Amino acid sequence: MVTGASTGIGRHLAEGLAARGMAVAGLARGEERLRTAMDEVAAATGGRTLAVAADVTDRASVEEAVGVVRAELGPIALLVNNAGLIDEFEVPVWEADPDQWWDVVSSHVRGALLTVRTVVPWMVLRNSGRIVNIASGMSTRANPDYSAYSVAKTGLMRLTESLATALEGSDVRAFDVAPGVVDTPMTRSMHMWEGFTDWTPPERVVELIAAIAAGELDQWSGRFIRAGKDDLDVLCTLAPDDADRQLRLHTYGGDDPLG
């Protein structure tokens, strides 16, 4: 199940996963565009797809959508939380519209929370499942012009680690996957990427998430990996130590009382 599947990275993921033989349920708010996208994916891949219109920030909508997915396609083995908004204007936080700012945060954090609380209990019962939260470079460092997006993506990383910690001992795992800078309508709308050409191929995002779904990167549960920079073969052979690829406070030296 991929949220935000009608366009951008979500659309690439739906097609890439379907091409690998997965039955893919796509969620998005715009029903017509979503159905068109899922029909196109099915036609291009020969895979089975399902379009379910839903607002991931609405609890009843998410619960109804997950019920439809489970009824039509069976148990959800992979959840990809991709849906989310971006700051409407590139301005410092005190100039941002507070309602739009909060909508951005809610779309990522509340959206992921609601899908997790609806999908993960079934994964726990089956003792099988993988959750991927789509992270960002802004998860790990602030951007003054995209404060809401930065806050949202950082919160999503902490949610992933909390989830992974709570799932320890089970065969249900949670991951942060940063897609890099994929050429999508959203990135094209951001002034910071004007003139940018070194796009991350969406296939690199798909291959990481497909590997997660196959259980090849389980040792990275609760941690951050980045498409287009991380090499899949290397990740498969590495076992991270301590807080590698997790959000932590850097101390100021040996005398720091928080050290």
Automatic annotation (TrEMBL):
Family that this chain belongs to: Belongs to the short-chain dehydrogenases/reductases (SDR) family.
GO molecular function, one term: oxidoreductase activity
Protein name as catalogued: SDR family oxidoreductase
Assigned EC number: 1.-.-.-
UniProt superkingdom: Bacteria
Keywords: Oxidoreductase
Keyword check for Oxidoreductase: yes
Record-linked InterPro entries: NAD(P)-bd_dom_sf, Sc_DH/Rdtase_CS, SDR_fam
Keyword ATP-binding (UniProt): no
Pfam annotation, one family: adh_short
Enzyme class: oxidoreductase
